Amino acid sequence: MAATMTKKDLVWRSSELFIDIINCRDMFCQIRWVFLFLLFTTSRCWSVEGYEREEFLKREYSLTKPYQGLGSSSSSHWDLMGTAMITTEHVRLTPDLQSRQGAVWSRIPCYLQNWELRIHFKIHGHGKKNLNGDGLAVWFTKERMQIGPVFGNMDLFTGLGVFVDTYPNDDKYQERVFPYVSAMVGNGSVKYDHERDGRPSELGGCTAILRNPSHDTFILVRYLQRRLTIMTDIDGKQDWRDCLDRPGVRLPQGYFFGASAITGDLSDNHDLISMKLYQLTMPPEQEEEEDEITVPSVDNLVLRSVEIQDEGMSGVSLFFTILFSVLGCFLLVVIAIVLYGRWKENRRKRFY
Ligand SMILES: [Ca+2]
């Protein structure tokens, strides 16, 4: 993944290449420079994409090797909780053992308006496909350090949750292939429905075959001008694939980044290698004036717990069920009357 250049870099590099082309003596050299120049300018169009990502990550919101002083020192920017433990290679949120919960939480509230979070992680274990669980989640929430049932974090959270769900709890929906990446925005009153893998409250998502990889796996969460974008890079091709894109997502500032994982009867190692946060900036003319957001919300979506009723009988099937029940009862009564009549007849014959 190439880092995006700043505008200043691009101008400088363009002028440098132009001088090189002029100074070239032979034709072959000039053709080579023209080719490079074209490649460079087209990649510029691709990389700027209407916004800029600052080249340097925001250290205070990022979690990177060698994780020095993580959790323990007062200068650390992150806290550990539950089963989370640090090695030289990763922060292991849970080991491949039953009933574990672990998390890391940023200590510093984030007041950036537009940002991009890149999560480098690894989910692996001994269990066969669909005999592993339960997954990990990445958070941007008002609350922090609350152990709970939603991938190791509290339910009824306020903010954004991005889930990497590795176990299909709701086996009625077999068209959905797991692991499944999805996102949800909560306002403190929306329950995550674990039994339905969060379907009632999800904003969208995608299948992501990312367990037991031989290569690095990444998820990108971008929040830009109230647009939430999630991409995955899980094939080892260093290429971002679209997963979710939702405009009109309103997240307040001052929330905390975190990551958590949980195992139940089934388990996996949930390893976090890094979380890198970049600030995104828009050109001043495109910068939108934003009213202060105090409660998370999503345009055209009511954030509340939704009870999905089991698919009961429709009106037509209910009508026929009652009809056939009544007919069945009627038939039984008729048979009983006929049999009783015959029994009475036989009895009468025996007396005479
Ligand atoms: Ca699940």
Automatic annotation (TrEMBL):
Could you tell me the membrane topology recorded for this protein?
Single-pass type I membrane protein; Single-pass membrane protein
- Gene Ontology CC: one annotated term: Golgi membrane
Would you indicate the residue range of the signal peptide? none
Compartments annotated for it: namely: Endomembrane system; Golgi apparatus membrane
Coiled-coil-forming residues are: none
Q: Which Pfam families match?
A: Lectin_leg-like
Q: Which residues cross the membrane?
A: 318-340
Keyword set includes DNA-binding: no
* UniProt domain L-type lectin-like: residue ranges: 55-280
- Assigned keywords, A-Z: Disulfide bond, Glycoprotein, Golgi apparatus, Lectin, Membrane, Metal-binding, Signal, Transmembrane, Transmembrane helix
Where is this chain primarily localised? membrane
GO biological process: what's one of them?
A: endoplasmic reticulum to Golgi vesicle-mediated transport
Q: Which GO terms describe its molecular function?
A: D-mannose binding; metal ion binding
Which top-rank group of organisms is this from?
Eukaryota
Q: Which PANTHER family match?
A: VESICULAR MANNOSE-BINDING LECTIN, VIP36-LIKE PROTEIN
Which protein, by its recorded name, is this?
Answer: L-type lectin-like domain-containing protein
Question: Whose protein is this, by species?
Answer: Synaphobranchus kaupii
